[in-house]
Amino acid sequence: MRRAATYGTGLVLAHVLVNIVHGAAHLKLHIALSPVAMVFVVGVILLCPLLAAVFLWTAQQRFGLTMLTLSMTGSLIFGLYHHFGVLGPDHVGGPSFRPLGNRLRLHCLPAFHNGSHRDLHRHALPAQTRLSRVKPRLFSHSP
Fold first, then answer.
1. Boundaries of every domain in the chain
2. What is the pLDDT of residues 59-76, one digit of tens each?
3. pTM: predicted TM-score of the whole model, two decimal places
4. Alpha-carbon span 54 to 44, nearest angstrom
């Protein structure tokens, strides 16, 4: 029981740190959320995991694990939808990301590494640097 509480709390702390960095990126780019999205972010993405971490250390550990799982799932779906699905000011392929270059796009990887890294690399790297588009010139003498 203590092991689940320790790992769960560590997960929540990492989640909060990623959200602080992500929120700072939104502020820097002047990307505001709608009032409904802001309520969801504060309630489900920030407060629910913190409350779940508290429950992990009580006799209600199963409830805490359920709350943590549901809030993290909601966070993942919300993030994937807003950053990779619907076109908007915070879509990773949108114009808001161009002034800061690829560095800002790559900060999303820890939050969204769910096996789709091949698709993310296609959007994060310019076409000239993709290995699939580079022609090998091992013995070519032409410039």
1. 2-133
2. 999 999 999 999 999 999
3. 0.65
4. 15
